[in-house]
Structure formats: C-alpha cells, structure tokens
Amino acid sequence: MIDKTWGSAAEAVADIPDGASLAVGGFGLSGNPIALIDALLAQGTRDLSIVSNNCGVDDWGLGILLNAKRIRKMTSSYVGENKEFERQFLSGELELELTPQGTLAEKLRAGGSGIAAFYTQTGVGTQVAEGGLPRRYAADGSIAVASPVKDVRSFDVSGTASDYVLEEAIVTDFALVHALRGDRHGNLVFNKAARNFNPLAAMAGRVCIAQVEELVEPGELDPDTIHLPGIYVHRVVAVGSDIEKRIERRTVSVAQAAAREMPEGA
Asked: Which of 46, 166, 227, 254 has the fewest C-beta atoms under 10 angstroms from its C-beta?
C-alpha cells in the first residue's frame, strides 16, 4: 500500500526551498489551499515564482505571501482584486506574466501531460503574440522586462487557414491544491467551483501536495467520482471540513438587501 499522507501542512511543505516554482489551485477565493499557503508563510520561504489564476486578495489566499514580499513572479490571468499586487507590479517589485485564462489552463494541463507546447488562436494579433507586454517595470516607470515575440503559424483545421500562436507548457517544482476528499493513495474529489484550476495545477507540479477536507481509505471513493487520479499527487494532508473558506463577493437581491436592513420585529 502506498500511503501518501503527511502529518501536517508544515511537514508537507518543509522542503519547498527559496526560489521554487509553484502551481497553486484556486479561482478567486474558491478552492484556495490556504493551510498549505499559511504553512509556507510560517516557514519563511521566499523568492517564489507562482503560477495561479490570480493572487488572492490583500489578506487571503496567495495575497498573504504577496504582502510578506515572498513572491518574485506571478504567472496569472486575472490580477484585479489585489491593491498590493498593483502597487508591487507598478513599482517594479513584482514580475508578472499575464496569460489568457484558457491558455493558462492548457499550459498547465500540457505540462502535466508531457506535451511541450501547443498552438492556439487566443492572442493572435495582440501583444500576447507580438510581444512588448510589461513583465517588470523599472523604478522610473519604464519597462525593464517585456514579453517576447512568439512564433505564429498558419494552420487549416476547418477548411480555412488561420493563424495560431505557439504557447509553451508549464511545469513547476511543486503544486499546492485543495480538495474536498482524498484517499491515502492521493485520489482526489473536488467540490463544485473548487474544481477550477486545482486539477490542472496538480498535474503541472513535479511534487503535488494536496490538502483535503476529508481523508478516506483506499477503495472508499467511487472510481467514477474521482476527478484527479493519485498518480499526480505525492503528498496528502487532512485539514478538516471546518477550515475557513472565504467568499470573495456576496451578491443579494434588492428584496434580500431590504429585508436585512429592516429593524427586527418591524
């Protein structure tokens, strides 16, 4: 029996060194591996290069590593919810590789599938393909590092030739993900929206560390319900179902808002 369980989040991330690259699951605040992120913060790891859809918010998710100046570079598709992210990027403290969301997902999947690169129409005719997107600013506001020009080729896949841009796969040193359930072999089940970038991030990491709310024995998970097979997962940490999960934005109807404002007993 291959038991991949570890005793704590701190033990599971203890060998992540300064300068490591990480693929981290989550979309907004959904599916963030917060126990693993907290453990990484506590041990002082820095100079990280992180691939994730976004960088959390100022005080949650990857935002807590950002606030502590532990992140050197982010590869993301959306960065609009974090003021500290904006400040660090515009001041030249943080490097950003802005990547279209679907392209980012496929780059992670390709990395985990042994595919070196692929062509996509997304980004053709823009700076994504033509280069020049700011990746790091200098202190004076000029562009210190810009995105490179990418290879563009024409393919006829539907009876009409179209241009496609070459995108390289992503493989990272480690992956941090959150799952609803996992067994001791590393098979994982994700809950609803938390099945976002988590499976893809897990695939891209050479060493995948998964925090799970519920740990079960091998054989307890219906094979048809498993979203990610254990072959991609190397370490499993049980964090319990009462772990804090934040909601990024809560939207209610006008009637619900009025009911909340109405004095009790009115």
From this structure: 254
What are the two backbone dihedrals, phi and then psi, of residue 24, each rounded to the nearest 5 degrees?
A: -125, 130
Q: Rounded to an integer, what distance in angstroms lies between the CA atom of residue 120 and that of residue 111?
A: 15
CATH of the domain at 82: 3.40.1080.10
**47: how many CB neighbours lie within 10 A of its CB?**
13
User: Hey, CA dihedral for 42, 48, 52, 55, is it positive or negative?
Assistant: positive
Report pLDDT digits (tens) over 58-96.
Answer: 889 999 999 999 999 999 999 877 889 999 999 999 999
Q: What percent of the chain clears pLDDT 90, i.e. is strictly above it?
A: 83
Nearest Cα neighbor of 64 from 93, 30, 33, 98 is 33
Report pTM. 0.91
Q: Which helix (DSSP H) or strand (DSSP E) does residue 51 occupy?
A: strand 48-51
